Structure formats: C-alpha cells, structure tokens
Amino acid sequence: MKLFTKPGACSTADHIALAWSGLPYEFEVIKDLKSPEYLAINPAGAVPAIQDGDWILTQNAAIMQYISDLAPDAGLAGDGSPKQHAEANRWLAFVNADVHPAFKPLFGSAGYLPEESQKLAKDNALKSLRGYFEKADAQLKDHDYIAGFRSYADPYLFIVTRWAKAVGVDLTGLDALEAYYARMQADAGVQKAMEAEGLKV
User: How many domains does the chain have?
Assistant: First the structure.
C-alpha cells in the first residue's frame, strides 16, 4: 500500500494512522499536486490518496476507515463495538467536516475578495476555529484522546491543531488541548511519520 502525501497537509494524519496500524506501507511526497502524473492518480489534485494494488482511494475519512479495517488489532476505531466505532467516527467527522474547512479563508481561498472582505473572512474563521478548539478542549478535559480512546480521529486533530498554532488561532487557556498536543508530539508513531516527511515534531 502506498500513501501519497504532502508534508504537513491533512495527509500527514493518514501517515500517522499508518504508522499506528503496523501495516506495511510506502509513501511518496507529492511536490506538485497538479502535475499530470499525480492528476492521473487523483484528478482532484489533492492529498491524501492511497494505492493498494491497482485500486486508488481518496478522501481522508474514507482512507482512515480503510486503514482501520485492514488493521483491526490496532484499535483505530476502538474496541470493535458499534458504540466505540461511532465515537471514533463522530470525532473524525468533527475534524474533517467542521474544523478543517474552517481554515480555508486562512489558507488563501478568500484572496479573490476585496481587502476588507478578506479581513472579515479571516477574522470570522479565527473566531469559528476558536469555538471548535474549545469544544475539543472540553472533551479532552476528561480523556487522553478525543474519542475517549486512541483512534484515527487523533492524528487529524493533531494536524489541524498544528495548523492552528501556525496561523495564529487563539488557543490560550485551552490547557487540555495543549496537554493533548504535547502527548501526541511525544508519540512514537507521530514522530516516525512526521520525521519521514521532513517535518519538525
């Protein structure tokens, strides 16, 4: 199985999940998402993508669940019970559908707007993201991991928290989130994946 990734992008979360899974895998860092070679793999020109034999899968949430299904003993969706699987999916969906898209105005997608509108879009994004991270912090006050157990939601939350720190989201006072972030930084699988992609842990 081969992962196509871009260092620090959401695909790094899949890389961490693979490191946790114990599955054999290789990876390729994509420098040009719009190159003809990569567009033949993923016509959307986005990461992540994985290739398993002659089959290619895209979309982060689908890839996370595929990795989990291939390595059930790794517990990336919990203990196998419907309840824990649902909790893992709840928090994966929270990061994938709520938190990740909220970064778009901060990553340049509002660049076509007039300057005043760009500032408003960025301010609104920072405010929304603060609210999302407050929700994560509240959950983490009673849990070491976001779903209540280590799951495939954690690498994704770790990566978007890393983004938040980079773009200046106000995370002051979110002590449980900060402790979680430090815990993830110290994790051997996180370190393995990030160092392999040339990222500073």
Answer: 2
Closest CA to 47 of 30, 62, 64: 30
Q: What is the number of helices (H) and of strands (E) in the chain?
A: 9, 4
**Residue 138 is assigned to a structural domain of this protein:** yes
Asked if residue 180 has pLDDT above 90, the reply is yes
The pairing of beta strand 49-52 with beta strand 26-29:
unpaired
User: For residues 174 and 176, what is the distance between their CA atoms, to the nearest angstrom?
Assistant: 6
Q: Three-state SS for 59?
A: coil
CA dihedral 50, 145, 135, 81 (to 10 degrees): 70
Judge if 134 and 47 occupy the same domain: no
> Residue 104's pLDDT band (boundaries 50, 70, 90)?
very high
- Both 115 and 57 in one domain: the answer is no
pTM of the entire structure?
0.94
